[in-house]
Sequence to fold (156 residues):
Amino acid sequence: MKFAAPKRAYHEFFQIGIALKLAVGIAELISCALLFFISRTAFTTFFNPLIHTALWSFARPFLHSFSVNGKIFWAIYLFVHGAANTFLSLMLFKNRSWAYPTAATVFGLFDIYQIATFIHQPTLVLGAFTVFDLIVIGLVLNEYRYEKNLHEQRSL
Fold:
């Protein structure tokens, strides 16, 4: 019982982290859909004034790579990443035992890509998302150990 309070706090952080992953996943799926309906001209007309401000400097590599091939790449990436975040977050909320190691692995694989991208094109936002994802992976693994131990105690 000595560790009940910290475990509860970790669980709450886990739930917040997964809720944020779910929100990001849904936003990515919406962004993917928008990419199919927005022409390159409309996209660059809207974002060109923004990329010259410091606030949007993090998006320059993405915005400059928005060619036809870039559009297809980003649409596929946003769909796969968004679908994975959304599906795995929902399964974690449903407490599916297989979802914990699967989510940690999938989130980790996406983080490898993010880290490689960060090395070549470092941005504050990409760094923040990567750190957030690493924290969520830690919380998922911690929750998995907790749920696994709880399940083992119940089966005794």
About this structure: The two ends are 18 Å apart (CA to CA). The chain has one domain: 4-149. The CA atoms of residues 7 and 146 lie 8 Å apart. Residues 4-149 form one domain.
